[in-house]
Specification:
This protein has about 180 residues and is mainly alpha-helical. About 45% of the residues lie in helices and about 10% in strands.
Length: about 180
């Protein structure tokens, strides 16, 4: 176990050791951490809905009716009417045949990307794409090529292949 202690010490020395910080208030642009109000620039509450009165009221009503969990995945135990309702409303709003709601962006990316691409496909990904995009690509089993951040020449170099060379009509303009 000495190697674990040594690795932790190395992380601390290099400034890479991370700790969880307890937020003592509602998620928002400003939060309280260690009793002090600070500006939070990394929240997913960018729409400011985490403490919206109507959403809180609706959540309390849903908890009173349905409890606090679904019990299992939708595929295993069945979907809840609330899920169907929100998906139908989103589909109507977007003018689409259907919609599918995921509990997080991570869940969406590791589900949707493998559904769209797989073995025999190639995915080109900016090196700084979110980890969930990278995980989705890896899970897809498609060939995965990363290029330097915002580097269209790097993308073009990775995109050149015999397939595109043999099918000029499919070649993107920046690959010419």
């Amino acid at each position: 176990m000495d190697f674990i202690t040594e690795e932790i010490d190395n992380l601390k020395t290099s400034g890479l050791y991370r700790t969880l910080r307890a937020i003592e208030s509602v998620q928002g642009p400003r939060v309280k951490i260690d009793g002090k109000e600070v500006i939070l620039l990394c929240s997913n509450n960018y729409l400011g809905l985490a403490d919206h009165p109507r959403l809180k009221e609706a959540a309390v009503k849903a908890i009173e009716k349905y409890g606090v969990g679904s019990g299992a995945s939708r595929l295993v135990s069945g979907t809840m009417g609330l899920h169907q309702e929100v998906e139908e409303r989103i589909a109507r709003f977007k003018g689409t045949e259907a919609a599918l709601v995921f509990n997080s962006g991570y869940a969406a990316n590791v589900s949707v990307i493998p559904a769209l691409v797989g073995r025999g496909d190639t995915v080109f990904s900016d090196k700084l794409n979110h980890a969930s995009v990278i995980d989705g690509c890896v899970l897809s089993r498609a060939e995965f090529k990363r290029y330097p951040h915002k580097d269209m020449e790097g993308l073009a170099l990775r995109g050149k292949s015999r397939y595109y060379d043999n099918h000029p009509a499919l070649r993107a303009p920046f690959l010419n």
